[in-house]
Amino acid sequence: MSNPSRRDFLARSAAIAGTSAFGMESLLTAQAADDVKPADMTIARWEKPEALTAEQIRSAAVKLTEAAIEGLGGLKRFVSKGDVVWVKANIGWDRSPEQAANTNPDVVATIVRLCFDAGAKTVKVGDNPCDLARNTYQNSGIAAAVAPLGAEVVFLDSRRFRDTDIKGERVKSIPIYPAIIDCDLVINVPIVKHHGLATLTMCMKNYMGVIDNRKSFHQAIPTCLADLTRYMKPRLCVLDAVRTLAAHGPKGGNLADVQVKGTVAAGTDIVALDAWGAELMGKKPAEIGSVAKGHEVGLGTIDYRSLNLKELTVS
Amino acid sequence: MSRRRGIFRATHARRVVQIAFLLLFFGLIVLAGPGVKAESGPLLGAFFLADPLILAATWLAAHAVVSAMLWALVLVAITVLLGRVFCGWACPLGTIHDIAGRFFDGWQRHPKRRDQWSPWQRGKYYLLAGLLVMAAVGCHWVTIMDPLVLLYRTTTTVLSPSAQWAVEEGATAVFEADPGVGAWRLKQVTEPVYEFLGRHVFVVPGQAFLHTGLIVAVFVAIVLLNGYRRRFWCRYLCPLGALLGLLSWRPLLRRAVGQEECNECGLCGMACHGAAAAKPGHEWKSAECFGCLNCTDSCGRDALAFRLVWPWRRKRAGEGIDLSKRATMGAAVGGLVTLAMMRANPLARGLDTETRYNPALLRPPGARPEREFLQRCTACGMCMKVCRTGGLQPALTEAGLEGLWTPRLVPRIGYCDYDCNLCGQICPTEAIQPLAIEEKQQAKIGLASLDVSRCIPYAYGRECMVCEEHCPVPDKAIYFLEVEIRDRNGQAVLLKQPHVDPDLCIGCGVCEHVCVYQDQPAIRVFSTNETRHPRHESVAPADPWDSVY
Lengths: 315, 549
Known about the structure:
- The complex is a heterodimer.
- Chain A is α/β, with parallel strands linked by helices.
- Helices cover 35% and strands 21% of the residues of chain A.
- The longest helix of chain A is centred in the N-terminal third of the chain and has 18 residues, at 54-71.
- Chain B has a two-stranded antiparallel ribbon with strand order 1-2. Chain B has a two-stranded antiparallel sheet with strand order 3-4.
- In chain B, a hairpin with a 2-residue loop joins strand 1 (180-181) and strand 2.
- The A-B interface holds A 94, 130-132, 134-135, 139, 155, 157-160, 195-197, 215-216, 218-221, 248, 250-254, 257 and B 34-35, 168, 172, 175, 195, 198-199, 203, 205-206, 388-389, 417-420, 456, 462-466, 468-476, 480, 496, 514, 516.
């Protein structure tokens, strides 16, 4: 970077100022090593998540996301200048951020901001939700968080899905939203939460929001998710565990089921991230069908520790 | 100066006012979409709140009215003073009749006869009498024939969904065929329009309503009848017109004829929309006059005028409605007989004794107990218009003849959204009571029941659980048990099977809506245990004492 732009300069200064201010020496040293070999996965943990107040959770979510992305070498690694990026958050349910049924709006907004900082021309945010989009977009807090940053909040139109040949092991053809596939990059940003049938819903399951006609997926969810994930060719996933939903998922609603974990992980290996998420929720990764299946068919590794892993503590 | 030759004609002003009211009426329907704020309910129902027929019928049937309905007294006062000007200047259905009437003018074979007063115009008063007697005995049926209700319902359930179909399918066809010239594509025009309409007008995608055949038939028939007599509906049938006619028996504003100027050409009589015997020499009927001013405008000699006549200077000249006592009594008895025949029905009798309920009748949350509900519901369709999922549908026979076109939830089409209470907020007569969202989330409208002969984990030994996933009750009214079953080879298979907790289920129907089957769902909601009927609680709450053992 012989001739850094003003934006780059500011971003770098901010990152350095941030790291020194918050005492993230580990991040700084790791970053130095990054120039040689970038990390495959980072896990950013808040130092004392149990002590976070509701207001502090908001700023913690921003810092955790920034740290996790920075740990991978920043979004410039994934976003080229002029790119169109789709941020595929989980905006499935008509629930508030505190109820932890959707991706944390501050996590989503931070990613949108970092996309623009990295030179993205357009950032779109949208999901094919289970509840009514008009309400999930609003009550999840996501529309209000990303719109002021300049992101396009896209309502998926059920008439604009296109039957797509995905050549899966089980799923041969499925209606996919073309505007998502046409993007230069899809960043998969789910929340970690309980799911009755699948036990947990994380990165692989989040791709169900780019398709339609998905009811019968439940009859063989690991294979269907593996098929879909293979087609989507994930490049970057950010797993939000700032708040997690431990029971009565995926819609939740009972605040007693919500746990503040104060953690955000990011990585390039979707199976590894889901495996880590399973452990975070007290499950063995192999117990989660989609994780086991993903590992088996080579979509990633269930042993996330075997990766070039970076663990950060943020405060 | 002659009005006829002048630039300003009173009928032009009237048409502007009529069109303005018509657009306001349609505008309020468009605004009553699922994005609406609960507080705007009274504004969106303004036409109904100003309607004295709804006020009278609801008061007669339920002996109670919502205080906002007293706005109708304003229209009562206007009518007493000025006559049926509402019919001529404001009624949106009347305006549609006027437009249709112009269109059909050429069909008339006997243009002179059609605008003469006919004794059959008394029919609407008898009809009103019969229907009001029914209301007094507790059947609100008169309001399903209210012109405002009729047009609202027709627009909401037929006209708007048809336009929506054209927009959605048309834009999609253009999008898929992608016609254009060179780099310019037609969809560059159609897509933004389609998107705008989808966001602001046709908010519920693919919205459509069941059983609209009869609604269409009634509307088409009354529009076509303009070809037989102009404003046929208004002259012969309209119960609101009849009520306003009774109120304008002796208005202050009366038509006067200058005997010297009039040459009895009869143009005024031919121009009269209400067949109010406008022609001099006949007795002008104030109760049939819409105050449309066609007669004064048609007069080439300026012989006609509307003048304020003070009550103490009234002429007595036979301007009454002149109803026959015998026919009025007959109408009243007819109303009673009709009601008796409607009630002599097993479901209606079952309602009387609270022992029988139609399983297909799911009422929206907050709906009053069925009898009280029917004493208030006008079947206007506002609740169906605001329903976020489009699940509220007009009943045909499910609620009996008395409940024709009243709202029922059809979960296959749309479920009751857990975080929505708009139908109760917007209902103009509070047939659906306004519930706070927390109350609404507790109000049971039914109970889900599983059909294990179709439910996939039970019937076919495969995973599914889509119903449980969508159950919005925070602690999940649908739960699952993990069981070991055997496949056809005798191999043990672990499987999750859903169950419904009757204590938690509120009957919202999302489970039925999302069930994987596209035809007959394996989980269905019935009105069992609905909050509004305490005696309909067939599945009693769990007894904690049992669980000790």
